Prior knowledge:
Jelly Rolls; 5% helix; 38% strand
Amino acid sequence: MNRLRFNWIISAALALSAAPFIKAQEGDLKKLQGIWTVLSLEVNGQKMNALPSARFLIDGDHFKSQGMGAEYEGTIELNASASPKALTFNFTAGPEAGNRSLGIYELTGDDLRICITTRGDARPTAFASPANSGIALEVLKHQHVSHDLGFDDTPMLPGLPFHVHDYLRPHPHVVTPSAEPGGPPSDATVLFDGKDLSNWKGQASSITHAGAEGPAEWKVENGYMEVVPKTGDIATREKFGDCQLHVEWSAPNPPHGQDQDRGNSGVFLQGLYEIQVLDSYDNVTYADGEAAAVYGQYPPQVNAARKPGEWQTYDIVFHGPRFAASGTLLRKANITVFFNGVLVQDHVEPTGPTEHHQRPPYKPTPEKLPLALQDHNHPVRYRNLWIRELKEGQ
């Protein structure tokens, strides 16, 4: 059996639901407008487990199936004068585009039975699902909308298949926040837990050129890691794209040096876009080289630095660039930074990767690359690093 066709049948069978239709419908099609939940399902004579997240939406004579890893879309036809009553799904979009499923149905009040083919052009003639028949049999129950859960008579949201307060709109999945302020939520990847550098590897420093590929050589003690000068940068073993990143760092105390030679390091998003780490407390340097600058491009809106030796926090939201297959830039990178809880970079778009004394252009890069921390010959400390990958639209 075709797997995509099988997934479509399961998706349609497990939850049959509908949005209000565009124009008035008559007969059984009008009666089908609503929410249906599956009571039982058989495919090829075998009972199947329900997937409560799957659903089937009807808007007039248009249907859209969701919840099976792909979306199926098309039109629905009914022939209520046939015996048994006939039903046809014509697919216009999704993996089954250009195909159709033939079926029969029986509608009695709030009860619905349907039999649908998963292959071939022979419409079922009886409500049964014999072994190896390629037929699915479902029994469904009509569910009426509770306005405690939402509405189906409100305006449509532009560009979305949902109404305002739509009862069919998927709920956000549950994430448990950390019990400690600044701690990782339940869906975060912990990059450094205060114990070891197993998630990191060494590489040559982008500034001093010290170090090489191999084990990370920075020092770990008392719950933090510390740059060991001239051992090179470190980079995550895992690759990341669009993300929310939390970093805590501390410049040496007592301070040493001035300008850029004072508590210098850096957080490199995708190894290309540097958020400057620097002791900027009572220390004058060029504006786009201060702490929390997008180095060489965007100064922070304000200087929110704490004293050297105190722990500083960066909370960063990063959306990487996108490139066409031809290499054409479709979308610039986008960066937001909170420095010690203060917004200092607000959706800024780098002109390309960041470099000292340079302004290189964008070049095609993968959507996911390692995160890096810089060895700039200063024993800067880091702790409590975690990251959350973001989906499109977040």
